[in-house]
Amino acid sequence: xxxxxxxxxxxxxxxxxxxxxxxxxxxxxxxxxxxxxxxxxxxxxxxxxxxxxxxxxxxxxxxxxxxxxxxxxxxxxxxxxxxxxxxxxxxxxxxxxxxxxxxxxxxxxxxxxxxxxxxxxxxxxxxxxxxxxxxxxxxxxxxxxxxxxxxxxxxxxxxxxxxxxxxxxxxx
Length: 172
Hints:
By secondary structure, the protein is an alpha/beta fold. The protein has helices at about 20, 25-30, 40-50, 80, 100-110, 125-130, 150-165; strands at about 5-10, 35-40, 60-65, 85-90, 115-120, 140, 170.
């Protein structure tokens, strides 16, 4: 039996509309899936309804991955792939796997030889770089800054040093 694939499904950023932001392939893939790994089931259902209004919500299976998910739960989220069903990963906003818990699932899929298929969609990181006018040849995305004040100061000094060397620093 052939494994199902793991599709990385981009979500909208802000108040944008599906037609204005996502290529038709995204809706086509979403309409073919019944298994989804998501950060929040309610908002994922809303997104799926926006992109494929004809899709029956009752037929959908959701696996929630967020800060409350135990690491031991995550491998079971890929079980449908081993039965030949493809699974979609939907982030709360933008592209899954970037500053997003979906990266853990993607890493595990690679370890298990499951084909990972990223779909084209909006990325706040790339949009920020495009609009910044800063060096787009050499840049780093540093994720979230530390919460601890002293650690945050230390991190910002390090990022400032790299920026002086010509590398654009992007963080949340």
